[in-house]
Design goal:
Layout lengths: L2 H10 L4 H14 L9 E5 L5 H6 L4 E6 L2 H9 L5 E3 L12 E7 L8 H10 L1 E12 L7 H5 L8 H10 L2 E9 L4 H10 L19 H18 L10 E8 H5 L4
Parallel strand pairs: 1-2, 1-4, 2-3, 4-5
Antiparallel strand pairs: 5-7, 6-7
Length: about 250
């Protein structure tokens, strides 16, 4: 991620609808997992630390990111359990964590299956990973290029990659439903009529307070829906909650 994008993320992450929505969806997808005691959680690609800070009072939350700048912003949030590393060289011993978060991380990996295998080795018996990735290659835009994405996924494609890496997917759903229609217009339709967004820009725009509140309300509704249905049929992202097959085979729950 470009340094300017990291700084922008730190400035808006506490209140911007996209990041507030992400935290709402993570909480509902993990659901009862978070109520099983003081867990050890690893946030891979923790960025500037807003998700990590959200969990630090409820769990022993550790963050890892390859960007020293992002980790410096984490420290500004008062976070101390941090490591500077990339996904291919995670500095942890096997079976260290109960929950691992990979939120908008897998799309950066050249070898996504290999990264998932390495992550699986870090989980304790019964442990789970929550993966969230951008959806639909047809929505590729300058936003992906600034954030150094390599690909976008479908739900079927994410399941295939996770199965190949040795995971059993227990929940698979599209997310960020409210963001899908405007993104489809901005990234799919407008470029065809010569109104593409300039290169070198992201979609993290600061909206007026009422628009921001309205979008957060939309995410609250999405979180409520995900408490009652297993999956949503479309969205700007796709998320999977999974556990290593070796635990499932051993009868772990």
């Amino acid at each position: 991620m470009e340094p300017a994008a990291i700084e922008q993320m730190y400035q808006i992450e506490n209140h911007h609808w996209w990041f507030v929505g992400k935290r709402l969806l993570v909480a509902v997808l993990l659901g009862e997992v978070l109520d099983t005691g003081r867990l050890r959680i690893l946030d891979i690609g923790c960025g500037t630390g807003a998700v990590l800070a959200h969990f630090k009072e409820r769990a022993r939350a550790v963050g890892v990111d390859h960007s020293p700048l992002a980790l410096a912003y984490c420290r500004k949030r008062g976070l101390a359990l941090l490591a500077c590393a990339d996904g291919e060289r995670l500095p942890f011993v096997p079976a260290s964590f109960d929950v691992i978060l990979m939120l908008d991380v897998l799309e950066h990996a050249i070898d996504d299956v290999g990264l998932l295998r390495a992550v699986g080795a870090l989980l304790r018996p019964g442990g789970m990973v929550l993966v969230s990735v951008p959806a639909f290659q047809g929505l590729w835009s300058p936003h992906d290029e600034v954030l150094h994405h390599l690909r976008r996924y479908t739900a079927r494609g994410l399941r295939r990659v996770m199965n190949e890496a040795g995971f059993v997917v227990e929940r698979l759903t599209y997310t960020n439903v409210a963001a899908f229609p405007p993104a489809a217009i901005a990234r799919g339709i407008l470029p065809r009529v010569g109104l593409a967004r300039p290169a070198g820009t992201t979609d993290f725009r600061v909206h007026t307070p009422w628009v921001n509140r309205a979008l957060i309300a939309a995410y609250q509704l999405e979180a409520l829906a995900l408490r009652h249905v297993r999956s949503l049929p479309i969205g700007l992202s796709v998320a999977a909650l999974a556990r290593p097959a070796r635990f499932a085979d051993a009868g772990q729950t």
